[in-house]
Amino acid sequence: MSPAGPKGGLSVAPSLEASLVSARMPTRAPALDRRVVVLSAWAIVLGLVAGAVARALVLLIGLITNVAFYQRLSLSFASPAGNRLGFAVVLVPVAGGLVVGLMARFGSKAIRGHGIPEAMEQVLLNQSRIAPRVTFLKPLSAAVAIGTGGPFGAEGPIIATGGALGSLLGQIVRTTAVERKILLASGAAAGMAATFGSPVSAVLLAIELLLFEFRSRSLVPVALAAAAATGMRFVLVGSAPVFPMETLTTPGGGALALYVLLGGLLGLAAVAATRAVYAIEDAFEKLPIPWMWWPAIGGLAVGLIGFFRADTMGVGYDNIEKIVSAKLTLEALAILGALKFFSWAIALGSGTSGGTLAPLFTIGGALGALAGAGLGRLFPAAGIDLRIAALVGMAAIFAGASRALLTSVVFAFETTLQPLGLLPLLGGCTAAFLVASLLMRESIMTEKISRRGVRVPSNYEADFLDQVLVRDVCSRDTVMLRAEQTIEETRAWIASHAPGSAHQGFPVVDAGGILRGVLTRRNLLDPENPGSLVLGALVSRPPAAVFEDSTVREAADHMVREDVGRLPVIDRSAPSRVVGFITRGDLLAAHRRRLAATHDAEPGWFGSRHDSTPTRSANAER
Questions:
Q1: % of the chain with per-residue pLDDT over 90
Q2: Angstrom distance (rounded) from CA 285 to CA 349
């Protein structure tokens, strides 16, 4: 602080005697509040509803499958693999594609695709608002597409439907955009949990692909929704694992190393699969016919492949069970994996309605088992278990394609209940994630919306400004002006270029030393303000200030709420004392510290210090 000036001049108050009762201070929001309880209650309701919707969709898929392939009325879940339609089977997926195309054309174009990218786009661009009609059209279109042989899983549409239900609820009741996002993610997690009985991986999926944050306020409702949906599944279906396996044995060190290598290979496969899907989608975009007919063309490819290998049609959960249980020969694995890939890639690229999880699990499981067999022959002493290899392949290709690493690991465990597979899964999925991330910036979930110019967050880290206190970045040489001082005297002081006169903002205190407000250099030099006017009369609003032990994030938010660029800093233990000043420039200085911590390598035992990001310490915004 500058020394006190003579009478009629400028003054610096070393301490204020009175309490700043009129100052507006930032409030520290609690980690959880009562609003989270309300959201949690709604999330539990969503979970129960999603569990019922998931069961209803499976029954509807079973009904359509039975009618389309077996000409019988039954709700039992059936695979198209046992049909006896002959070459006429080709027409069934075509008919399904025609219906989906018409629903998309005259209902909602948003039903196209596998659902998760569309939900991500609504979260990022539309404040988590999904059109209500999508809530009904998405499951109906998916039931038609899958029931007529589409090579998709039911989980993708159920996840999308659950998310749409959450969004719809968030539009009906009074919510903020963030709360609506939490409800959308809760519904989506409930959909996945209800499909597979996998509540933990469902929560992780919501965090990694929809919430773009890891906070208590969102974690609690999403977890409760997933738990409720899983409970509903246990009531309606049972608690048996979706993909049962015989008990695995503990893998040795050599086998673990090969499973990690296998995961890296599946990372390459994930990149190839993603690029192939979008290359096919680009090819459809070039067709000289309206997009509503594309699903029928995709259905034609599905039908032709299904004529030669009928088990490539439908959800294929039975195929996944056979793969992870090592019940298929290597030749059968190769044929199933290849034909399933072509059928799925063409159908998905055509813009029909269906999910990606089950097809990727089938393709990845087949590739994992095949790669495991090859590595086993090269390194027979390692003792590779083809069941673990298939399990790692199933999860690793999804980790590489979706970048949902933790979801992939936990999902494979929850759907098989094989704890001894967790270590190979962790190593293999991480290797796949690493390889795919290095080779491809976007994922199968984000490529489509990235092409539309949407930036999808990929790293969720703690806010650096929330870790820095105001006292660590604020200026201490604060010059304070007296309220009875005239503007003319103040202008003369500024013109004298005295110490502190170049600052851009000044706290104003009254005769008792109480903060009256803050005036900027622009206020003081504005020619419309007469020189005879005292500074106290120029203050138009109560002061906004920040505590010394507040975080820089709280200070930045307070600046936004108060629409100011600078704040006096108050000592919380002695609220009558102004100890400094914080400006927008100080916020940038805090970010410079973050950049330095990230890029400035410290000298180690060997080599010299390398500074990749120069930092600057001065700012001219005081």
A1: 44
A2: 9
Q: Model pTM?
A: 0.82
Instruction: Single out the residue of 243, 251, 244, 207 nearest to residue 225, CA to CA.
Output: 207
- Given a cut of 60, whether residue 224 has pLDDT beyond it is yes
pLDDT digits (tens, 9 = 90+) for 431-465: 999 999 999 988 888 887 787 777 777 777 777 88
Q: Please give the structure tokens belonging to residue 74.
A: 């039954």
Question: Quick one: pLDDT at residue 608?
Answer: 54
Q: Give the Cα separation of 421 and 584 in Å (integer).
A: 51
User: Would you kindly state where each structural domain of the chain is located, as residue ranges?
Assistant: 34-236, 253-451, 465-611
Within this chain, domains 34-236 and 253-451 share the same CATH topology: yes
> For residue 522, what are the contacts with CB-CB under 8 A and spacing of at least 6?
none
Q: Classify burial at 168, counting beta carbons within 10 Å of its beta carbon; exposed 0-12, middle 13-18, buried 19 or more.
A: buried
Among residues 21, 25, 14, the alpha carbon closest in space to that of 548 is found at 25
Enter the CATH code of domain 253-451: 1.10.3080.10
Strand duo 515-520 + 505-509: pairing: antiparallel
Long-range contacts of 281-285 (CB under 8 A, 24+ apart): 281/348, 281/349, 281/351, 281/448, 283/349, 284/349, 284/350, 284/351
Homologous superfamily (CATH) for 465-611: CBS-domain (3.10.580.10)
pLDDT in tens, 191-210: 999 989 999 999 999 998 88
Cα 70 from chain centroid (whole Å): 41
Q: What is the 3-state secondary structure (H, E, C) of 390-418?
A: HHHHHHHHHHHHHCCHHHHHHHHHHHHCC
Q: Region 574-596: what's the mean pLDDT?
A: 80
CA dist 586 and 225 (Å) reads 42
Name the DSSP letter for residue 466. Answer: G
Class of domain 34-236: mainly alpha
